[in-house]
Amino acid sequence: MGDIVQSFFSSYLGFANRHRFLCLGIAVALFVAAVFVSSGLTLRSSLNELLPEKSPSVVELDRMLEKVGGVSVLTVAVESPNVSANMKFIDDLTNKLNNLPPEEIRYVISKVDRIKEYYENNILHYLDIDDLDKLYGRLRRIVDYEKFKRTPFFLDLGEDDAPVTLKIDDIEENNQGNMKMPLAIHEDYYGGEEGRFLILMIRPQSVSLAVDSARELIAKVVGIVGELSPSSYDRDMKVGYCGNVVSTVEEYDTLKSDMLSTLALCIFLVVSVVLLYFLKLRIVVFLGVTLLVGISFTFAVTRVAIGYLNAQTAFLASIIIGTGINYGIILMGRYLEERKSGKEPLPAMEHALTRAWLPTLLGAVTTALSFSILMIARVRGLSQFGFIGSVGVMFCWISAMLFLPLMILVSERVLSMFKMSKLSAPRRKSALFPTIDRLLHHFPVFVVAGSFVLVVVATFIVVEYIPNSIEYDFSKLRNRISAIEGTEALERRVAKLWVGSMTPAVVLLDNPGDGPVLCEAVKRQNDARSDSERMVDYCYSVYDLLPKQQDRREIILKKYDRLLDAGWVSQLGGDIGRQLRTIRKSLEKYRLDLDDLPEDLVRNFTDLEGNVGTFAYINPRSGMPLSDGRNLIRFAENVQNIPLPDGRVLHATGPSMIFADLVKIVKKDAPLLTLISFLAVSGFVIILTRKVSEGYAVIAALVWVVIMMLASMALLDIKINFFNFIALPLTFGVGVDYAVNVAMRFREEGEKRAVDIIRNTGGAVVVCSLTTIGGYFVLTRSANQAVAQFGVMAVIGEFASIFSAMLLVPALIIVGRRIKNRFLKKGDL
To answer: Which residues make Cβ contacts (< 8 Å) with residue 542, sequence separation at least 6?
Structure first.
């Protein structure tokens, strides 16, 4: 196999050397085509993109969106100390928004006047039965008094105050909870803080609001607000925007900004490292173009196979740059060594390729293998991450082995034509490599023993860490900027206005009549659990907006109707007359049904076809925040599958269900994927090194790296989440690359040239590690805390990997050979 590959490279280099510009033209054409294809990639920031399309929670969510319509909301918050100015501004803004085309806005919610009117007109229907009886007694006294006034026995003493008054304030206050409002109110407006903070909510028409559509809607609303000039209402008036329409745009912009800023910083760091190592700007250009070719083909394939990047794969460019440039660095280092020894460009490149292709291929394949293991993950985002990463690594290797030699040969030819300085190995002096050589030559046992002591101590730390290693605090996974000063900061204030949860679970019903049955089943299922496991506060459907105990209430209301005769009640004046006429309106119907409920009250239960009551809500238990993953999982387990008495099973859905599924999948899949990755990489190392001692040295060093990584995570209090756990399998592939290169160079040249091996191969390995560290380090600057934690873990893994490659692996090989030689000498004796 090796002879075939070497023959191929020799033939390719011969052809490329004879037809340099033809090959270069073909390469440029392919590059331009790849860039054109990859330019069609889009970016998706939705959490739904992380789970498989056939995941039950995603399927149910899609079904809900198709039936119910978009759940997007744009909230406008108005704040000033002038309450009347706030109200006037809300009214004017509502009127302006209602003039927008109906295909853009489904409805605007700003006031509760119609809901309050409904409850006032049906007050008797929403009083508790005991209070209804109590009020009847008070009314009976009023009626008896008014009837007595109409008899000859009544003596009018001319007193201003009536001797009998109707007091209902206490009854109304006692029954406020029966008159359901979705949010806190101030007078006729949604808001709090005694009217100093009011809100208005806009529901877009689209089922699924794209980023561009969300941005356009926000721009229109902001424009209308600007036309109204909030400061003209009150100079201290502030207007803010939140809701998932804003968070969709904010998350997308933050993700895009993060991606571009980390990419720019990664390029700067990688260029700096390569320039400092080779001290030649043209080498930086060669390696950069080589890398650009590999990445363009990677994202072209991604465009065809997947079509988009998600919140996890968006950062792969930085990782691929930091990792993919390594193969070109090693080849370039080998080439410069050969040129330094006096070889001409073509023989030097042939010899460099002959020596570099196998170790770099091994490194590329092990890295790609670590990525590809992620493709079996049930989290769609991780599966795509694995696919793109493995494709990217291999394209970068192919580009380094085929395109980089072509550029070098062309440049050497051009340089000779213009009699310019040719490429040569940089001259440098460093105390590091001789020190490492002396340490390995004189004290390899101490290196091995010291590493062993470290790993034993780290193992005890890891054993304590593992049982509590999963991250359940979701506040540590959010966008840092949004949490402090963006949407989330305002969202927390708005959340305080909601009577229940802002993110309840939603259950689609086969028909509206299933609502009460479902809620009873949820209550029964919740009550069957121990108190600590009960995660449901209450379930509610549109039927919960109707009065309770209507059969019994109907009998009592008929008594009211007989008591409050419409004829004489209409003749009463003063406060008593107004109160009795208001109460009398409740008697127009003895029973209320769904058709009697006002539109403003049933909007949250109305689907796209106008059907009322086709879904219900389940609120999580108060005092048990779902930002704690343990609570989230328990809540999901409580409500995800709800059996009904007739044998049907209904399913709850919502963002909470998706997040719960992510946590459960990571908890189950992370150890399995890590183990599979380790076994696959270890097996591949043994097969390709073809020498047990060197293979075992690499694998032992890999185990050391993993244990040191986990111990460092424990000491830094970094928990494993749905994104950062992939740092472990990736470290297997990337980290083993360095160890394999050093081990194979030791196999080729033996222990006697340790200083040259460490200076040449070790130097290239250090540069490779530094470029990879640069690719990971930039992720630590991400506003996405999950991505930042992944960056920290990966950087730790890189430092551990380079230590093991430069010290531990050579020390293990040297100690192993010395022990073997002693046994051989004893055998000779």
So the answer is: 512, 515, 594, 597, 602, 605, 612, 613, 616
